[in-house]
User: Fold this.
Amino acid sequence: MKKIAVFTSGGDSPGMNACVRAVVRTAIYKGLDVYGIYRGYEGMIEGDIKKMYSHSVSNIIQRGGTILKSARSMEFKTPEGRKQAYENLVANGIEGIVAIGGDGTFTGAKIFQEEYGIPTVGCPGTIDNDLYGTDYTIGFDTAVNTALEAIDKIRDTAAAHDRIFFIEVMGRDAGFIAVDCGIGGGAEFVMVPETKTDLNKVVKSMKNLRKSKTSSIVVVAEGDEEGNAEVIMNKVKERIKDENKDFKVTTLGHIQRGGSPTARDRVLGSLCGMAAVEGLIAGKMNCMAGVMNQQIVYTPFADCIGKEKPLSNEHLKLMEILSI
Ligand SMILES: Nc1ncnc2c1ncn2[C@@H]1O[C@H](COP(=O)(O)OP(=O)(O)OP(=O)(O)O)[C@@H](O)[C@H]1O
Ligand SMILES: O=P(O)(O)OC[C@H]1O[C@](O)(CO)[C@@H](O)[C@@H]1O
Assistant:
C-alpha cells in the first residue's frame, strides 16, 4: 500500500483534528503518501481530494471542528454516488481509507468497501459515545465538559430564583452525555432514550424534593422518548399544577460540538489515528480502531453499527442514589 486517504464525516467532534494529524503523520512516518478528502463523502463524490504533508496538520491539535470539514451526504446513499466516489479514488491512486465519524459514516464505509473493495479502517469521531468497540468516542469528553460548564452556571441562577430547569443536551439516540452531565452536574433527574422515562415518578419525587430543595436541575437527552426538554417540561408542569413553581428550559445545542478538545480527546484522537494507519498497513479492513481498557482494539464495522453499547448500570445507579 502506497497511498491512503483520510476524511471526517457526520457530526464534527472536538479531537477530530488530532485524529487527522495522527493519520497524516503516521502515514508519512511509515513512508506512505496521504491525501485529505474534504467534506466527507460529499468531497469523495466531487473529487475534492488534496495531498497532505506534515505541515498541513501543524497547529491544529488544539482546535475544535475539523480542518477537512464535514458533511452529511445523501448522494453517497445512492449506488450512483458511490460509483462516482470510487472513480475519484481510483483516479487519485488511493488504496486505503481512514474514515473518521460515527455509525452513519461506518455504515456508508461498510457498504462502499463491500461494493468496491478499498480497505477502510474507521476512527470513532462523534460526541455521542454511542459506538460499540471503544470505551469512549473522540469528542465525548469535551462535549460533556462544555455542557457541565453551562449547567454549573444555570445552577447558580436556578438556585437564586428557586427555579426548576430542564436542560437539553445532545444525544439523538444515546444518553451518554446526559448521564455524565447528570452525575457531574448534580442533577435531580436524567432522562435518556435508553430507559423508559416515568413522568409520574418524576412528578411525585419532584413534589417531595421541593420540600427540601428550592431549585432543581433535570438533564434531558434530546432523543428521550417522552420528547425534548420543552415538551417534557410542559408535561411535568401540567401534572404538578402549582402556580408558585417556576419552570425554565435551556437547550445547550451545538455549543457542545465545538471548542478546544480536552487532553483526553486529543490523546484518544491521536491514538485512534495512529492505530487506523497501522491497521491498514497490517491488512485490516472493514473495522474501527478504538480504545478499550487502554488497549487499541479493532472491531468490525458490522459490530460497531449493529451491537448496542449500553449505558453503564453503575452510572445509572449512581445517578439515582445521588439525587435523593
Ligand atoms: N446507509 C448508508 N449508505 C451509504 N451511506 C451512508 C449510509 N448511512 C450513512 N451514510 C453516510 O454517512 C454520512 C454520515 O452519517 P451520519 O450523518 O448518520 O453521521 P454519523 O457518522 O453517524 O455521525 P454522528 O454520530 O456524529 O451524527 C451520511 O451523511 C451518509 O453520507
Ligand atoms: O445538527 P446536526 O449536524 O444535524 O447534528 C445534530 C446531531 O449530531 C450529534 O451531535 C452527533 O451525532 C447528535 O447528538 C445530534 O442530534
Summary: The domain at 143-257 is CATH 3.40.50.460 (Rossmann fold). The chain has a mean pLDDT of 95. The longest strand covers residues 163-169.
